[in-house]
Amino acid sequence: MARKTGRRPGNPDTRAAILLAAREAFGESGFDGASIRAIATSAGVDPALVHHYFGTKEQLFMEAVQVPIDPRDFVPEILSGDHGDIGVRLVRVFLRVWDSPASAAAAALMRSAMNNDWTLRLLREFLVTQILRRLVNHLGHEPTEGALRASLVASQMAGLAMVRYIVRVEPLASAPPDVVVAAIAPTVQRYLTGDIAG
Prior knowledge:
Layout: H1 12-33, H2 36-43, H3 47-54, H4 57-65, H5 75-79, H6 86-98, H7 103-115, H8 117-138, H9 143-166, H10 177-193
Helix pairs in contact: 1-2, 1-4, 1-8, 2-3, 4-8, 6-10, 7-8, 7-9, 8-9, 9-10
């Protein structure tokens, strides 16, 4: 579940204006291209007020996207341990998150992204900047190769989410987690650390 950001109470109209400006900025310019200063200008407030309500740019992004999970709750677990087992850890954690109470909201977000280009952009930014980039950076890949590996991992995990949790194709939909991990983790591991050139 997403952890509380410790946001302070305040004028709901001001908060709403900042969130609207943030969604537009992140959707248009991405996480890296959007700045707190530009978001504040668009919302008609001082940048200090954005920090007052939301803390960091990352916290503002998380609230703007409204994802039901917080990567800080599980990415460290994926990154800890031997690089040769990172595929197993990623798939195990992925299944645990999707089998949790957050799964209904996650499925709703995915369905919404399929029908709404703005939601799709925000979801893509969340996956790339908050999860996948951290994985490939941790493994030390140079940016171009890392981006390719990240997109390959995304294709596998998005497909798994769609088939197991949304479309519910059997027998994958009801397969025990250990079976799914054994089947999928080797491919994810190759995408992360193996040969993808040939």
